[in-house]
Design brief:
Layout lengths: L2 H8 L6 E6 L5 E7 L2 H9 L6 H8 L3 E6 L3 H15 L15 E5 L7 E4 L8 E4 L8 H11 L18 H4 L13 H15 L4 H16 L3 H20 L1 E2 L7 E9 L2 E10 L2 E10 L6 H12 L8 E3 L7 H12 L4 E3 L4 H31 L1 H11 L7 E10 L2 E11 L2 E2 L5 E4 L8 H18 L3 H4 L4 E5 L2 H14 L4 E6 L4 E4 L13 H34 L7 H11 L2 H5 L3 H5 L6 H12 L1
Parallel strand pairs: 8-11, 11-12, 13-17, 17-18
Antiparallel strand pairs: 1-2, 1-3, 4-5, 4-6, 7-10, 8-9, 9-10, 13-14, 14-15, 14-16, 18-19
Length: 604
């Protein structure tokens, strides 16, 4: 603890508020809230034993600031806003993904209709159904309603009657309130049936679809009968995806958690209308979780367009239920009960959520371990097995591509910490080499790359690689070696010959052979294969452009300007060959005579 922190601790107030921990570069690395700022912040720097996360945090704190608030709730909301703003490293950060789709029914509108939405509006008399996942989509459910119930789908305001009904009325998918074919009382009866279905009562809709299928078949309208048959199958799929947990209609979120090896997973089981419809899992690797962290999770999770449950089940270790209930009331004007179940079905649900969290975390840690072995650890192994000067955290791979010496190109791909860094990839057109000479091509491209080391403002070119990988054998390696040593003595250089996966180093004619199962060899193979793919892709694009331009120059009356116009319009030979006379004369700069010559060229 430095003198700046020591002096600030003496002046902390006994009020609620938010504190912002900063590192030596004045970056905010943690935002926290406190009922009592003086007590909470002092706890970070006292001599009591702390968990690893807190020790790591404290070791990086060089300064802190604080903001006083009127209440603990105000501190909670300010903390959430500051976490969103600064994205501190030591806070739990839920990545914003695509929100779940819900079905919306606005009962405030005349003749309500169903809509798919991802944004929740907490106004009165607006119902939301969902979320839908696990292979069931909101669109699938909407289709079921469409074929069973004649609700409108238009955007009419109903301020006046329409002159005629739309096509949907003719095919039985709308009851046409727009021309008074149905009044509000009878329309609302249909709405009530739709609500019952969306709440999980599927018997009525099954009966309706079955009758429609039988009637269509009896009238020998088999195509329509198949449509209803498909909808019945979709209904079965919907029912099979849901697991009934309760006989009564309950809307519950169950929050399970599990910690292992300094990481945690939070699992949210979602139960709507007494049925478990799915789960969301949040793997927070290299994180710990306490009551403050869990409150942060709730605020971030439920602020992101969620339909609120009636109850949230939590583990008995959670102590901030009153603060969380206040958050729901003040932000959403809704009472959400926070419950710590002790027996019966709800306790079983919580145990299930905890098991779910355990399974997901263990799988994630296994995947994370495998990823480390294939990336960072593979880089470390390469240094040992190839006796490199440094760990190759930045590897640059080069490859040449040409056909019969034409359209010669080269690629440079970059792997950082064992993973592709595609924004750093670069491509080259060979300028100084005639004919087929891969050695000279490699020499040119490596020289051009090395020249950029000191003069370029391009982030990729100005970054110094730890290792350069050349695709090929000893010859390709020698071509690059003499150039690289002119510019830098410390960059390691190797080549990888594809036939036997032999690794060659400078000043040695004996290749290094690694096992095919070796992660460090597999990393080199990924770099080599990616360089080859990138070069081939670039070469093909050039070949396509030049091939089209070459053919067009043989057409009477088509010069460089018109070649460029046609190339920009059609891109490929096939597109131009299939173009009609009318397509051609529409193009500015192409005359009727040009169009005739082009058609004649491709048809003669």
């Amino acid at each position: 603890m430095n003198n700046v922190i020591s002096e600030k601790l003496k002046t902390l107030p006994d009020f609620s508020g938010v504190y912002l921990m900063k590192d030596k570069d004045n970056n905010i690395i943690y935002v926290g809230k406190a009922k009592n700022l003086k007590k909470r912040v002092n706890q970070y720097f006292d001599k009591r034993e702390k968990n690893l996360k807190t020790e790591l945090l404290v070791s990086n704190i060089a300064n802190f600031d604080y903001i006083v608030t009127n209440s603990e709730y105000d501190a909670l909301m300010l903390e959430n806003n500051l976490i969103k703003k600064y994205q501190p490293h030591y806070n739990i950060l839920l990545k914003d993904g695509k929100n779940f789709a819900y079905i919306k029914l606005d009962l405030n509108r005349p003749f309500p209709k169903l809509e798919i939405t991802r944004k929740i509006d907490f106004k009165k008399n607006i119902k939301y159904f969902g979320p839908y996942f696990n292979g069931v989509t909101a669109a699938m459910v909407m289709d079921l309603v469409k074929y069973a119930y004649p609700l409108r789908s238009c955007n009419l305001s109903f301020k006046k009657l329409e002159k005629r009904a739309c096509l949907k009325y003719s095919i039985g998918e709308c009851s046409a309130p727009c021309i008074n074919k149905i009044d509000k009382v009878n329309y609302n009866k249909i709405v009530d049936e739709v609500i019952n279905f969306l709440n999980g009562d599927t018997e009525k809709i099954k009966e309706i679809l079955t009758n429609k299928m039988i009637n269509s078949a009896s009238l020998e309208n088999f195509e329509t009968a198949i449509v209803y048959k498909n909808q019945l199958e979709a209904l079965d799929k919907l029912n099979n995806k849901y697991t009934t947990q309760f006989t009564k209609k309950l809307n519950i979120d169950v929050i399970g958690e599990y910690s292992l090896n300094n990481s945690v997973c939070i699992s949210v089981l979602i139960i709507r209308n007494g049925k478990m419809i799915g789960a969301e899992n949040f793997n927070l690797l290299n994180k710990f979780i306490n009551d403050n962290d869990l409150i942060d999770f709730f605020v971030q999770y439920y602020s992101n367009n969620k339909v609120l449950p009636h109850e949230i089940l939590v583990n008995s270790s959670f102590k901030s239920e009153m603060l969380l209930e206040e958050f729901f009331i003040k932000n959403f004007d809704k009472k959400v009960n926070i419950i710590k179940p002790q027996k019966a079905n709800k306790k079983v649900l919580l145990e299930t959520a905890n098991k779910n969290a355990k399974e997901y975390l263990e799988k994630s840690l296994n995947l994370e371990t495998l990823k480390l072995e294939r990336t960072i650890n593979a880089c470390k192994d390469l240094q040992k097995k190839l006796s490199l000067k440094q760990i190759p955290l930045r590897i640059e791979g080069f490859d040449i591509s040409n056909i019969s010496g034409t359209n010669k190109v080269a690629s440079m791909v970059v792997f950082i910490n064992g993973e592709p860094a595609k924004s750093h990839y670069r491509k080259f057109k060979i300028k100084t080499v005639d004919g087929i000479d891969d050695f000279s091509c490699m020499k040119e491209v490596v020289k051009r790359r090395m020249e950029e080391l000191t003069k370029s403002k391009d982030e990729s070119f100005s970054s110094i690689p730890n290792l350069i990988l050349i695709d090929g054998g000893k010859g390709q390696l020698s071509s690059a070696s003499e150039i690289i040593r002119e510019y830098n003595k410390n960059i390691d250089l190797i080549s990888l010959a594809e036939k036997n996966e032999e690794i060659f180093k400078e000043n040695s004619s004996i290749p290094i052979i690694l096992k095919r199962s070796d992660y460090s060899l597999q990393l080199l193979q990924r770099v080599r294969d990616e360089a080859h793919r990138y070069a081939i892709t670039f070469h093909r694009s050039l070949r396509g452009k030049n091939g089209l331009k070459s053919i067009l120059s043989d057409i009477q009356g088509i010069g460089k300007v018109k070649i460029k116009i046609l190339f920009n319009e059609f891109k490929t030979i096939d597109n131009l060959r299939n173009a009609s006379y009318e397509d051609l004369i529409k193009i500015k700069g192409i005359t009727k005579k040009d169009a005739e010559n082009i058609i004649k060229y491709f048809t003669s």
